[in-house]
Amino acid sequence: MESLQPHIQLGKDLQIKYALMPGDPARLDRIAPFLENVTELKFNREYRSLSGTYKGVPILAISTGIGGASAGIAVEELHNIGVEAMIRIGSCGSLQPQVKVGDIIIVNGAVRDDGASKTYIDAMFPAVPDAQLMLYCMEAAKEQDFQYHVGIARSHDSFYTDDEEAIDAYWSKQGVLGCDMETAALFTIGHLRGVKTASILNNVVAYEQDTSESIGSYVDGENLAMEGERHEILTALEAFYKLETGK
Ligand SMILES: O=P(O)(O)O[C@H]1O[C@H](CO)[C@@H](O)[C@H]1O
Ligand SMILES: O=c1cc[nH]c(=O)[nH]1
After folding, report:
1. Is 179 in the pocket of ligand 2 (CB under 6 A)?
2. What's the CATH code, domain 12-245?
3. pTM of the entire predicted model
């Protein structure tokens, strides 16, 4: 019998090369309408998965939960079953005034302020995406006329801290565009396993606004952030199409 990976509960028989990776399991409901032949696969812990096709290309969508530790498990287990390229479609908070709510960030490097990536390799090792996959994301966003930025994200481990304002001000001063919790682990572990990675972040928190309040309204689906989410999904799907076809 086919052995299943312990957390994602998927096995090698899946034979899908490309994975879209949101943090939130509920985001799969909003990815599904962009795919054909959708099949719900598994929902174990934070890892909910479905498969489908985009312009004929087989795609897996799987949620990774919150934080580098759970995202890292997904990277490892997806690699074990033969997934070759992974694009995170996450949400983030803005660290720059020009990054507005609903804008997307195509991440070209991540500050490794997480714990998971450091358990693999020294913090001086860079967290970077696959250059070709990132370029495909940029082309895909441009061709669809989406508002996007390219730059650095900071991935951190604790959503709540006592020093959030000071920490955000410091990284903002260094030109970091936004903060999330999974990109650094995805890039670092993905690189070490020979997996192509990219990360697209939909900004859901306006610069210098209260993070918890803004995330609350994103969950309620009230605002521009939902449009940004649609843009990041379509950008990632087109990037996979380009990777598959070279077009
Ligand atoms: O929207 P997702 O992909 O879950 O990502 C962001 O949202 C969560 C925090 O609210 C963290 O996981 C952060 O990285
Ligand atoms: O500000 C934010 C918003 C989303 N995710 C984060 O990690 N931080």
Report:
1. yes
2. 3.40.50.1580
3. 0.97
